[in-house]
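FAQ: What does a ligand-bound record look like?

Like this one, built around NAP:
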Amino acid sequence: MTDQTISGGAPAGRGDEEPILLLTGGRPDLGGGALDDDALWSLYDVDDRATGVLRVNFVQSLDGSATVDGLSGGLGGPADKRVFDTLRSLADVVLVGAGTARDEGYGALRVSAERSARRVAAGLPAQPAMALVSGRLSLDPGSDLFAVAPRRPLVFTVEAAPADARARLSEVADVVDVGTDTVDPARIVAELTSRGHTQVLCEGGPSLFGDLVAADLVDEFCLTLSPLLEGGHGPRVITAPTETPAPPRGLELGHVLRSGSTLLTRWRRPAGTSRGGAGGGSTGGGTAGTDERSRG
Ligand SMILES: NC(=O)c1ccc[n+]([C@@H]2O[C@H](COP(=O)([O-])OP(=O)(O)OC[C@H]3O[C@@H](n4cnc5c(N)ncnc54)[C@H](OP(=O)(O)O)[C@@H]3O)[C@@H](O)[C@H]2O)c1
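The answer part, i.e. the structure of the complex:
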């Protein structure tokens, strides 16, 4: 994806070439200096990988847009990309809605050799798994997303999905029904957990995020604030699945990073609370160089 032209805003405003600093977040050992990749890994790592965490990552403009000209690439800078890659590196599985995969032109999910080595050293598979959500199964089985994937992707769909598309995709992916006419997000989490994917990174998009919030399945929200006023044409980072409002969900601040004028925030489900959906909150047992989506 090409970068966007931003009138009136210097590239440095989005953190280009700027170090990433920890502003607040209860890690005095990491305060005061530029965070290297080891520090970022340590900051976003979890204490116990057996405890299920569904983490969602988005970038948005200061005026609340998830896109510039229909894509997220105009919002992210180098700092956002480093955190984006760090989150992928830590994930068991990256979960993405079909709309995002189509619009952002996702290719095969593959973290860099260096990040892959870090995963292996930590006892993880060399590459995270990839899971997509699509009711219509309108995904190209010949695309790089499937054709050169280092791990066979999962596709979560519904029983009502078109049979011909299901047959084609089943040749390159594990197609799993998690609903009759619409995807049940709690069943997605349960299916991932049953495959040992406890650390789930959802990269959007807004519709899938809306489904996950409505089902109260989101444990962490990582939001990059890009120092940019988009102007009001773009969508929010979330789309409600129904016209019936879900109750507001409170989150607690985990940390705030700064790179130039870009803020990279991490928010968490309040301590002592658990998922409200059927997926269960803290059950155990149960992401680049070639990327795909390039915010930066
Ligand atoms: N700023 C950011 O960080 C960020 C991140 C991600 C995406 N985006 C932007 O968001 C836009 C895409 O938005 P989006 O809402 O279309 O993305 P999305 O949530 O990735 O995709 C929506 C699609 O996912 C499938 N889906 C989601 N929930 C479903 C359910 N409950 N049942 C059945 N199918 C379900 C459907 O696929 P089928 O149509 O195949 O049935 C649906 O059309 C793009 O412009 C992208 O650039 C921004």
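Follow-up question: can I read anything off the structure? Yes, for example: The pocket of NAP is lined by residues 58-60, 66-67, 70-72, 75, 97-100, 103-104, 133-136, 138, 182-183, 203-208, 211, 237, 239 (CB under 6 Å).
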